[in-house]
Amino acid sequence: MxxxxxxxxxxxxxxxxxxxxxxxxxHEQRVYNLSLRMLGRPEDARDATQETFLAALRKLPSFxxxxxxxxxxxxxxxxxxxxxxxxxxxxxxxxxxEDPGAAPGxxxxxxxxxxxxxxxxxxxxxxxxxxxxLHDVQDLPFEEIAGILGVPIGTVKSRLHxxxxxxxxxxTGTERPSGASEGKMEP
Length: 187
Hints:
- The chain is 68% helix and 0% strand.
- By secondary structure, the protein is mostly helical.
- The protein has two domains: 1-103, Rna Polymerase Sigma Factor, Chain: A (Orthogonal Bundle), CATH 1.10.1740; 104-187, Winged helix-like DNA-binding domain superfamily/Winged helix DNA-binding domain (Arc Repressor Mutant, subunit A, Orthogonal Bundle), CATH 1.10.10.
- Helix 3 crosses helix 4 (69-93) and helix 4 (69-93) packs across helix 7.
- 30% of the residues are buried.
């Protein structure tokens, strides 16, 4: 019988390093997939995944268990992705070159449609992208997404709608109809 996440956290805080390895093994792929879809680059996704578990290693003893461990890890991962996006933006503002080895698109599916979706998703503002990935890709319920992002459920639903409208616009190349503020992408 496998230990629950709560039991693994307890074991880790009591000094069992194998418990942390089990936590990583259980959650690494979902954290990586979330990061890849948030960042669009496998290298950045690996960095965000590593940052997530390094932060978890440091902060797990203070994890109170108010939410599921997976929810907490998703929140840490989203924050790691935001940090990487900020660094990327700062590098672009400073005129520093992008990593030439970075390849956009989802390595899990090399079809041109998936690459187009991934590229369009990278253009969606961060707060909408996070909700799109957590809901439409990770299939998390609104309540859990609200907990991960620290926003009300209504905000999650609004961001999901606005993100979908923006993503559709980016994929079809259409402009927002004049006077339609509902699909507006600005926060």
